[in-house]
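Reply to dn_fold:

You asked what the input looked like. This is it:
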Amino acid sequence: MKYKTLVVMLSLAGLAECPVIVCAEEASGNLRAMTATPSAWTVVAEQESNASQATIKALPSNVISEPKAVSDAIESQSPDKNGRVQSQPLINNVPLSSFLTPAKKAPAAVAAKQDAAPNAPDTRPLWKLFNQHAYDRVEQGIAKLQSQYPDWKAPPELVALLTQKRREQRLEQVIREQDTEALVKLGEQYPEAFSCAAIDKAWALAAARATLGQRESLQAQLQHLVTQCEKEEDRLATLYKAEHWLSRKEWEALIAFGTATPRTARGEVLFQQLVYQNGVEDLALAIKQHDNARVDSLFEQLQPEIVARKDISQLLLVAWHDFKLERLAAAQDLFATALAMEPQNDNARYGLALVFAREQNHEQAITVAQGLPAGDAGRNDLLLNAYLALAKQAYGQQDSQQTLNYLQEAKQAGALPRYASLMEAWSQFGLGNTTQAAEVFASLYRAQPDEESAAGVMAGYLKLERADDIALLATTEPLASQYQHHVAAGLFGQKRFFEARALDADTYGDAGGIAAPQAGAGVALRDKSGTQGLSQLSIRQVPVLEASMPTGSHGELNVALREVRLDSGTLSRDALVGSGSSGAWRYSPTTSTTGLEPRVSWRDDVWDIALGVTPDNGEVSSRPTGYVAYQSIGKLANLTSSLYVEPVRESILSYTGMRDPYTGKQWGRVLRKGVRFNSLQQLGNNWSVSATLNLEYLDGESVETNRHAGVFASVGKNLDLPAFSYAVVGLGFNYDHYEKNLSHFTLGHGGYFSPERFVSIGPALDFLTRENQQFIVKGRLAFATVSIAEAASPWFPGNDDGNSYASSKNNGMSYTAEATGVWRINDRLQIGGALSERNAPQYKDETGMLFLRVLFESRQSVLSTDLPTRTFNGLY
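and this is what came back:
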């Protein structure tokens, strides 16, 4: 194929008119057109038959180089979004658009040529239409002339300019419609249209390539713009825009390319601002990605410039980052620096106050926060939380008044949270404002029932002795359970264990042996001094068998059987006994016996009822025994009332009866039939008084009846020892009076101690270790001064023969020491025992016992009801 060369030359002389066009005809080889003047610019394009694209030849240095001919240049005069007109290709410092404006007329040379060729069509109307931007009509005119003049060809310069305008229109349409794919194709076809001279279009092309992900071509284009564009502002603007198109790494590489380009002083400032902006954006990204090591590294590099620029936003960004990482010292320093730079910066002040609050420096937090604008939500929250924190500290130190002071300040900043209202109520309670505290607790509980407000209601109303008010509120949980637990605890403290267990099984269900089926066996011994064969007495209860089972949830049934062995020693032949006749005994005197003593009892926390008989095999037939006791517990006093019929276990005569060794007559087996009242009243401050009144009627087989009255009173103080339910030191007074002295062993006498007057007074210690433990011990240690007066008594009461026993008086000291205890061996096994010694001027009495109890339900502790009280009392 032949080569074609198109030489376009525009002289400066023709800038106001149409440029001069010189066309070279086809020729073999390479044809070259040379410019006529140094001011012209030339594009030489040669195309070989097999070439795919134009090859740019080398141009003289005095010629401005563009990729193609003028017809391919792009007019670019529209302002960008900043109102700045972008640069465009120049020809001798004259914009290219000056050659393409519609105001141009047809070149004079063309007109002259047309005048010289009268057979050619007149093309001046086409040029006119072109200058009027009527490009469609130009094309229509060309087509019309070609149809009229088949051999005619349109002027090449007109065709080139028309092609140029059509391309420009297409490019503007693609950009307007944001057709990225079409724009990229145009960029590949006409790269010269997207040069530095048409910077806006170059940016549009870059944006399109970024959208389509053409990373390599995008980076190459941007690198070219940043390094090759002459205008400094275009290079800098490209860097700023490229941030949105490139990854961080790619953008930083582009900045590095831009570092080598020359800049003015103003340009250097803008470039350094860009570098700084890149750094702080890296910093922000590292913070967002929680890359703490990179944050520290970047901030160390940037901090001097951040401070120098007084870039408070960056200081606060890093300060909040440090705050979230609990690096409070660093955060405090940065917040303080920012606040020093700008004292009115509320963000810095708020952050500094928060740091102080987090460091528990609440006073300083309050000082800083007070500088925030009044009514600021953050200010009020800071002050509220700081004062609440100080109130909590004071509350923890049990400084109720200071707690209330801080809470009052907190109220000025906002509404108190619930926990603070509870602190306020407890502080009022601690200061003795019980009524106010109780009402606040009740209000809080009504609003939101919870454990603490329920505890406050309990504490307040109980202190005010307004338990009925608690009962009115205790219809919901948790107060219902707390109140029930309180009632159960009170019952437990009153030894009403059945009721406590029934109310609060979780707490007391496995306490002690109550309500547990059980069985036990033991031995009990007692030795009382006296005259052998008469007042001396040895009791051996071997074995003692017991079994218990619950009756419902509030009671327990007990069955006991004892084999009782009695022995009074050898009776002297000279002893005055029975009918008192002289001579030989016709019957063996009764100095020992063995019999069974059964008993059935039932008890709950109020009633205790028992029914039994005296031992069989005695000289006098068995007699029924028993008792009924009722316990009443009130606010002022505890009262126990008892009715009872009990044997008098002071001699064989009084217990089971004797046979007269002279006549064989049987007499004795005395029973006490009486009523007893026991009262205990608490006086406050651990002081108490107690009193007991006994009124008894005594009779037996062929024994003179008798009456007895006894009074006991004491005052004591509980030592309030932590390991004891009580440990009371007191002073006791006792008085007993019997109507008759029936202490002798002749017929009509009962063989029991029955003084006309018995008075004792002295100190005592009574104690009981704590309930619900692994063991429990109850004991008494007492000393007394004793005065005893026994009245004269006939030998045979009711059959007085004129003989009598003389009266007597006796004074001296007595003491009592006794203890009973139970130990829990494991969940189902208990062991217990008792020791006692009573010493008075006329006798000495010693007791001991030991037992083993098996429980048929698991129990975790022992109680005072597990003590062997019944067995122990069965010895006296």
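The first strand starts at residue 45 and ends at 46.
Hope that clears it up.
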